[in-house]
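Write out this protein's structure.
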Amino acid sequence: MIDFDTQDVYTSTIMFGAVAGIIFIGVQQFALEERSLEFILGGIAGVLIIGIIVFVTRGMGEGDIEIAGVCGLFLGVKGILLALFIAVILGGIVGIFILLLKLKNAKDRIAFGPFIAIGAMISALYGNEIINAYLRLLV
């Protein structure tokens, strides 16, 4: 994955994902007659959540905003919220191991984009099951 190795997110990759997401939303709306607003709001939620973190803390790169936005277009609001939660948990666990193994120190940067992508895949494949299991724990 590009972000993991270089900590760069290429605009061409993001643009391809954004166009594919818009096509996906169009197919959902017109062919399948499903509500597209959920997916549009998912893209906005991804951009806003990571955007606020980036601009307030400067702890992430701007490419993470784009990755979260594209993922949100495909996942919808609930899906991107779960994906970002998973990304934070996985990123934290990997970060702890990297520090414990002294592969990097606390001031070094670790790419977050791959964790967003992994969280998005888990959310897309198992999101409903994870959310339902979590809700059962609360009740």
